[in-house]
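Long-time lurker, first post.

We've been arguing in lab meeting about whether adenosine-5'-diphosphate would sit comfortably in this protein at all. Half the group thinks yes, half thinks no, and nobody has a model to point at. So I'm putting the question to the forum: if I give you the sequence and the SMILES, can you give me back a predicted structure of the complex? Inputs are below. Any interpretation is welcome too.
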Amino acid sequence: MTEPNHPIDIPPSWERITVSALSGTLLIVGAADTGKSTFARYLYGRLCEYHERVAFIDGDVGQATLGPPTTMTLVLNEPGQCVFPPAGPRFRAFVGSVSPRAHMIPLLLGAHRLVQKARDMGATAIVFDTTGLVDPAYGGCELKWAKVDLLRPSVVFGLQRRSELEYLLLPLRLSRRVRVIDLPVSQAVQRRDVPTRQEHRANSFRRYFEGAKAVELNWRNLAVFPVPIFTPLRLVALEDSAGFTLGLGIVMTSDRVSGTVSLYTPLTSLEGVNALRLGNITIDPHTFRDTRLL
Ligand SMILES: Nc1ncnc2c1ncn2[C@@H]1O[C@H](COP(=O)(O)OP(=O)(O)O)[C@@H](O)[C@H]1O
Ligand SMILES: [Mg+2]
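Top reply:
Settle the argument with this. Predicted structure of the protein with adenosine-5'-diphosphate, as tokens:
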């Protein structure tokens, strides 16, 4: 994602988009490092000129833009305002992994919950940025098609270098369930290698956990998904009754006999928390690097 003051290259094809005619959910798809998040932010800025209430959903659980990795974040603008990141209400959905592979059900449910919330909050345009999982061999097509069926976007923007998205886009074009707008990949896109991606996630977790403290709670009073195995350093989401994530915590200690668990979390109040959802990564609280658990 482009840094706030980093000048962006705006290809003529972006400028030609008739933004005044766009509304509803606008899904942005492309492989990793195709400029999806940069385009998403550009589109958000232009939509604000025509819509009073615009929502931005960061649906990338790996290279997240607006929230800690493993979560998807919805942010709304303050009516009439156009700053990025948007300054209005925020909602989060926990997926529990830094990759959608093997976590497609929570990813789809969370995406649906966030889009529904954006609509309930009065957003008439919703920009939805997605993960770079588009490879059919890893379920990329199934995932994106399911998103289209579930979220009913008015437009899918496809960013592709050659024809790597055609497995995914051709059936969508033919189905006529959604309008597909093709966009080229900007020459200005910078690719990120695996260590850079991991460092990016660690920085994002570090920022999120700044000022965190240990909080003890009794998990027997809460719904625990999927099963209460509080492995040390495991990442946990604290959720409200609607399934939104109020905060994340890292397991420090736990005691099965008393049913207590100590979580390192920036959340200052447990009010409204009625469920814990265990992720499938651990986080080192010194380096903030993540390691897959299962
Ligand atoms: N149009 C653009 N102009 C300038 N830099 C860009 C542009 N598109 C992408 N980049 C840069 O390339 C990198 C990857 O872009 P990003 O939008 O995060 O891609 P994706 O979301 O597809 O992984 C970022 O560092 C971003 O600043
Ligand atoms: Mg991105």
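For your lab meeting: Helices lie at 12-15, 36-47, 104-120, 140-151, 166-175, 194-208. The radius of gyration is 19 Å. Whichever side wins, do check it experimentally.
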